[in-house]
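Annex B.
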Amino acid sequence: MDIRQATIDDLLGMQNANLLNLPENYTFKYYLYHALTWPELSFVAVDPRGRIVGYILAKMDEDSTDEVIGHVTSISVLRPYRRLGLANKLMKQSQEAMVAHYKASKITLHVRKSNRAAISLYRDTLGFEVFTMEKGYYADNEDAYGMRYIFPQAS
Ligand code: ACO
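N-terminal acetyltransferase A complex catalytic subunit Ard1: predicted structure tokens.
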């Protein structure tokens, strides 16, 4: 499986994977906004025939004034391709790009409290920590953990 930077041509495939994998969905315009504004930060995993089997959609935090913070809007991997290390690789590529292109000092994301797989990926594999809990964050009222990773060179 190849991991490469996402292009405009990949956005429909990313949106399709997102619709299959997660209840948090976005308009095509929002994908386009990511790709045009932060083209270095989103990546796709593709199979040998070029089909998108995983993606990370990432951005820089536009509200933060005192710190440069990267943010993962969404990451997912199609079911048959899970536990192959793809999400780990997608996250690492995006993290590297956040530091290289924007000098990010940390990265944040939201995750459902019940999402054991994703929490394990973030906390146990990638070294994120929970820094906040947002009650009723999701449309169905589930709580979210706010998680963050502080880049070692920034601490
Ligand atoms: N149960 C427990 N731990 C898990 C699981 C699981 N099902 N999946 C991954 N992990 C942990 C393990 O520590 C794993 O390492 P190991 O396989 O050596 O034990 C580590 O994460 C790395 O796993 P990857 O293979 O890189 O993860 P994968 O490619 O399978 O993708 C993901 C993980 C993205 C959570 C996938 O399960 C998925 O797409 N789920 C549905 C969508 C989703 O929940 N996305 C995250 C929403 S939050 C957000 O987008 C900001």
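The pocket of acetyl coenzyme *A is lined by residues 21-22, 72, 74-77, 82-88, 109-111, 115-118, 120-121, 124-125 (CB under 6 Å). Helices lie at 11-21, 28-37, 86-102, 116-125. Further annotation is deferred to the next reporting cycle.
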